[in-house]
Amino acid sequence: MQPRNMSMSGVVDLAAVKAAQEAKAKAEQTRAEAARQGGAGAVSPADLVIDVDEAGFERDVLQRSAEVPVVIDFWAEWCQPCKQLSPVLERLAVEYNGRFLLAKIDVDANQMLMQQFGVQGIPAVFAVVAGQALPLFQGAAGEQQIRQTLDQLVQVAEERFGLTGLTVDPDAAPGAAVPQEAPAGPYDALLEAAVQALDAGDLGGAVQAYRNVLSDDPGNMEAKLGLAQAELLQRVQDMDPQLVRKEAAEKPGDVDAQIAAADLDLVGGHVDDAFGRLIDAVRRTAGEDRDAVRRRLLELFEVVGPEDPRVVGARRALARALF
Predict the structure, then answer these.
(1) Whole-number Å distance between alpha carbons of 70 and 49
(2) Contact (Cβ atoms closer than 8 angstroms) between residue 244 and residue 262
(3) Backbone torsion region of residue 60, taken as left when φ is above 0, otherwise alpha when ψ lies between -120 and 50, otherwise beta
(4) Residue 43: which residues within 8 A CB-CB, separation 6 or more?
(5) Which of 255, 251, 201, 198 is nearest to 226 (CA)?
(6) What pLDDT is stored for residue 97 in this prediction?
(7) 142/296 Cα distance (integer angstroms)
């Protein structure tokens, strides 16, 4: 399976956003299933440090991040600072006793993952928590700084996502940390069809597939997010970016022009620009125009994800603009 794009370069990566929301939902299912089975099995200390490649990224990082924070160490054999940092991370992974999982990625063998995370140089350390990627630090770092960063990561993972980590047993057989495939859910086939349509550029088919799921299950978060993504791509596919931006610049009071430009901003990765443009439009408008802008802004919030810090800040700014 192709690894999902988790770029940290600021671009809104629709696949990554989908993965984040999906992993958060699966985290609850994982914990509930573990509770029904009397708790998750213990893992060996050897399972706390794993080598990850592009083929196994979905399973070894995204899936695992639904139960434990995954720290990613981008390294290479020729990188001297990596040879100093990696042993420290490996030792701390064992010392932290299951509170995070260390995934080592050789950038020479996994160029796509390096590009997708927006890694500019190594060593570079990222984390994935419930499917959400965040940068930790780049370059050489002292052990005290690393510990402080890991402590914050563990705290956030537990407080925001309820991820308390893995149970470690020194006597457990290595290999227990390999995640098992979750049983197929009632809408998995329909959702997979929607994703395939999206990947193939059949935006109309993707929209319809997501709507089919929502007609039976209106609260399905994956379908809601997928529909918002597909509709956004559908809106911008025939736009002339130069013309849209020209009209938005020349007609600041034109609601349709500002909404179209905001869609382009978001697809282009300019998240703050998209939000700021529509919040300014809310301030300048009233009645039906203001409501149209507000609705589009809420739709874009869904695409980026409700817990993204940019969405949280924009919601506060929207509230101030409205009231």
Answers:
(1) 10
(2) no
(3) alpha
(4) 98, 166, 167, 168, 169, 172, 176, 177
(5) 198
(6) 94
(7) 45
204: left (phi over 0), alpha (psi -120 to 50) or beta: alpha
| pLDDT tens, position by position, 201-247 | 888 888 998 888 888 888 788 888 888 889 999 999 999 999 999 99
How is residue 173 written in tokens?
A: 């057989």
Tell me which amino acid residue 215 is.
S
| pLDDT band per the 50, 70, 90 thresholds, residue 8 | very low
pLDDT tens for each residue of 133-184: 888 988 888 999 999 999 999 988 887 777 888 988 888 888 754 555 545 5
User: Which residues have a catalytic role annotated?
Assistant: 79, 82
Alpha-carbon separation of residue 224 from 193, 231, 302 (angstroms): 15, 11, 8
Q: Are 284 and 252 in contact (CB under 8 A)?
A: yes
